[in-house]
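User: Can you write out an input/output pair for a complex, sequences first and structure second?

Assistant: Here is one pair. Inputs:
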Amino acid sequence: MSRRRTGLTAILLTGVLLAVAFTLRLTQPSDEELQGPFVTFARFGEQVEGRNLTWIAEDAYLADRVTALGWSGETDGVWLVVTGTIGSKLGVTSPDVSLRIGDRRYMASDRPDAAALGGSLRAGLPQSGAFVFELPRSALEGPDARSATARFATGFRVRLDSAIDMVLDLTALEHRSTAALPPPGEVIP
Amino acid sequence: MTGFRRWLRANLWALVAVAALGTASAVYAFGFDWRDYQERNPTQPIEIARGDTGELGAARFVIDDVIVLEGDSADGRRYGVTAGTDVVVADLRITPDPEGGEDDYAFCDVVYRAPSPDGEREWWPQTTNPTSYPDPGESAFGCQVGFGPEYRIRMYFTVPAGAAEGGYVQVTTPEELPRALRLR
């Protein structure tokens, strides 16, 4: 009788352990989730901080043409302009800024060169100005355009580091024919 | 003897093996990363007082002077330092490897670091003098320790007002990491 009970207990225990193992395997995070960024979400007018970046979004709008410091940006698509102040907390950093629309990712344009943000930041000396994204007009159509996400980080692939995300509804933004980019400059605290 | 104790006794060596192998796995998994991190970063600082000589490999470093031009001061205004910022001016004397030849070019990194509530902050030198503070008679461009005679170099670091306090000039070379000179 006792041997039979021990056998039943062993079978039961094995079943429980297998069920636990199976559940763990099913709920196990993917590599991407395990090594993904720690995301902080930004809103207009609020300062948010990551490990090494700070960001205050001021405005966002679309433009058919942008101008800055004697440069004129013509495009067959459309410009997304995001203005604000970005800073580095601890060391020299060149922010990596991109916009994800659905499964497509657009990097902030370097066409304006020094007329837009994106250059290196010095610790404690934030810079105000604008990031610009050159987008195809088709990017403004479809449901994904309602929840485009601008990401501010210290690298293209953020691995176990912080990132600042900002959700934008591209279909609701003001659309200008021409926009003058605010000149970038250090904001003295 | 209870059932559990009997089971424990019967499986003692297996349990010891699991504990030992588990520990070994953890050490193996993290040991390399930890050692690499330690060896690739300036984790072994060497404090050098002003005027004293610090050595990294065959190269020698002396900090002759460090001054802070405060933007919100009479001197700062006189030299055109932007209000709300300070400019750290550091004068170094560097003696490269005396046995090095022209093919032995080796660079060194010089940064200014200072504590802050968020952690230690770091600034890179600027390539040009951001102020009207008089430049020295002769100053090298860039830090090089591979060969050549002793030379002097002046470096400028723009920092937020008051941020330079408690800071130091850090010198590293890729070959000598994780050793780093902290010149104050």
